[in-house]
Amino acid sequence: MPIVLPEFIQSQRLSLRKPRASDAKPIFEAYTQDFDVARYLVWRPHQSLSETEAFISSCMQGWASGQRRPYVLTRREDDSIPIGMLEARFLPNGIDLGYVLQRSCWGAGLMKEAIVVLSDVALTLPECVRVQATCDTENLASARVLEKAGFVREGRLERHSVLPNLGSEPRPSFMYARCK
């Protein structure tokens, strides 16, 4: 039985919702151009709005196909202004997370809050027994977010991910998970 996550999730301060075509411009302006935001991610900073539009289109296709749930993060009081994204990629018995947050929101506990609420929802489903995420071994901020969200470091994956902003060779990652 496949995992089915809701289309809309709220936490104390955040809303997690489906992406809209209108999200491309504010996301481009907020963070897809920012090297510091993209530093440890699998994509390079976007050079044009059309790159972010293509990305949002692929996110919308992910929802339509049911293969993944890239949630747009907004503050609860205004769901028209994206501040980041949290993607759930479906595994046979769980989900794998990827996330990004605009720099002006760093340090406020918002990504931890988003990860906690999404993993709490996922782990209530009988078919989901694991929520996992990886981060580069040098990305201490991301590792700390996962730890604060209740994830346990399970190990180190050598030559795991190519991060184009840091080079062309695969880099090691830490594997984190919350399980039931």
UniProtKB/TrEMBL annotation:
<dbReference type="InterPro" id="IPR051908">
    <property type="entry name" value="Ribosomal_N-acetyltransferase"/>
</dbReference>
<dbReference type="InterPro" id="IPR016181">
    <property type="entry name" value="Acyl_CoA_acyltransferase"/>
</dbReference>
<dbReference type="Pfam" id="PF13302">
    <property type="entry name" value="Acetyltransf_3"/>
</dbReference>
<keyword id="KW-0012">Acyltransferase</keyword>
<dbReference type="InterPro" id="IPR000182">
    <property type="entry name" value="GNAT_dom"/>
</dbReference>
<feature type="domain" description="N-acetyltransferase">
    <location>
        <begin position="14"/>
        <end position="172"/>
    </location>
</feature>
<dbReference type="GO" id="GO:0016746">
    <property type="term" value="F:acyltransferase activity"/>
</dbReference>
<keyword id="KW-0808">Transferase</keyword>
<protein>
    <submittedName>
        <fullName>GNAT family N-acetyltransferase</fullName>
        <ecNumber>2.3.-.-</ecNumber>
    </submittedName>
</protein>
